[in-house]
């Protein structure tokens, strides 16, 4: 399980420990979310083998579970090692790579996670909210009425269980989501907005909803963003 940079502007030395480099230098078979971005990452990492000599198979939201996953695992059963790479950050977390990992566990194949950047954990680390108990909720409903209901539910959990509630949105819907948080959540609830994590334009800020309303929304349109209510 090979993490890759969250931001294209990240310095490779900051996100690629030498231990990881030794592992990827030994591999010639990769299961990836996106072949193009995986090839770009490996090229920037200056892997020992030529990129054109590596074998890639895609595992993403378009992959049909079942036989396709079994075929990805077959080379590993025959003795090859495989690297799993997400499009950004760590594979297997909010990422379809979990499907092939599940298949490996069923077949007794050892799974090794390598150290690397996770936008979810980095946002949690820098939020100042409760890091002893937190939950990642993925994407919220798209319809405003259903999303408002989900936000109120997360806010209640944060208040009653003292559990930080992490969620994300497609970047082009960030502004609508943030505006709805300002509209439906209580003034004293705390909200972290973590945008473009690890890039030079990184923004991570925690304020109460009342303070956000007064301050105004930062420029998060079409930028990868993590939201946390606490």
Assign the structural class, choosing from mainly alpha, mainly beta, alpha/beta, alpha+beta, or little secondary structure: alpha/beta
The CATH first-level class of the largest domain comes to: Alpha Beta
Distance between the termini: 30 Å
Element-by-element helix/strand order:
HHEHEHEHHEHEHEEHE
Envelope shape = elongated
CATH topology name of the largest domain, in short, is Methyltransferase, Cobalt-precorrin-4 Transmethylase, Domain 2
Number of strands: 8
The CATH H-level homologous superfamily of the largest domain: Tetrapyrrole methylase, C-terminal domain
Outline the biggest β-sheet.
5 strands, mixed
The portion of residues assigned to helices is 25-40%
Query: Under the CATH scheme, which architecture of the largest domain would be assigned?
Result: 2-Layer Sandwich
- Rounded to an integer in angstroms, the radius of gyration calculated over CA atoms is 19 Å
Number of helices, where a helix is a run of at least 4 consecutive DSSP H or I residues: 9
| Strand order of the biggest β-sheet | 4-5-8-6-7
Hey, roughly how much beta strand do the residues contain?
15-25%
Poorly predicted runs are: none
Rounded mean pLDDT is 94
Overall tally of domains = 2
In summary, what is this structure?
The protein has 230 residues and is α/β, with parallel strands linked by helices. The protein has helices spanning 12-15, 18-25, 35-44, 67-77, 98-106, 119-127, 144-160, 174-184, 209-215, and strands at residues 29-32, 55-58, 83-85, 134-139, 164-168, 190-195, 203-208, 225-229.
